[in-house]
């Protein structure tokens, strides 16, 4: 395995547990903001805050505004609608909030619950916003799939599917204005097309090993240039790509596989996967039109790494605690941000790639 060590971290202590974070689409050419969902275990208080990020020699995160959701945040996504940012946040109590930050001062201009009741009988376990912010798909542990349309005249909610508990969903990702993918228990991936209502149009269940078939898909990503292919991360260190045009096949990038040629980078849960948009010219030259693009992952056993099809993984970080999630600034992909949860909360910054990370630092180190 290749190792690309990230050093010289600047650590900034935080007072709350970080549940999720995302780069906010730029409010201006000079400003960069981070949306952080946090939880105070002492007071049971939850918050979603917009923080100004300075990536100087002494980086800082400065709170600009905050919103109190109905319960603890379970998923967080951002997009840009009519040149203004939009935030979607779901909760463990089954509520969903659509937030509209003010482009002038980063305050929350509008906060809309969708609808003013619970959408699910349990936690909303995954959601995604379309790139233009016009629609949000959400899934729940109770097997429901819902769609919220975000228009100039307001919000429109409708239920797309209800499995009545036969399927438990954990992740969702848009592929096009009409298509999206969902993930769930049993390493299950399903592909949906709103033009063909009634249920998923095709599905794939990871069955390359008996133990993996009982796993869970925690995260999905779909690249705009490969809209028919999704990459998924889940239990037992599994990371695989699935092309909907070949519904019964998958490409295992890491984890349990019947093939001895597949590297098992991690044996614990892979919490997040994202296509790594920070690629060198040589990386672009080696890519084929059918190959799997490089994928960044983080895991329960503290691994942050980049996976490339047919190559050894590149390990960026190896910590003694879970790395729960990360984000890559799509406006400037050389800036990478992650959340790493130890015992005590904190923020860390690294200047190797302009990496910004939210850490929980053990023993106050």
Automatic annotation (TrEMBL):
Q: What keywords are assigned to this protein?
A: Nucleus, Repeat, WD repeat
**Protein name stated in the entry:** Nucleoporin Nup43
Localization terms from the record: Nucleus
May I have one GO cellular component term?
nuclear pore outer ring
* Organism per entry: Mikania micrantha (bitter vine)
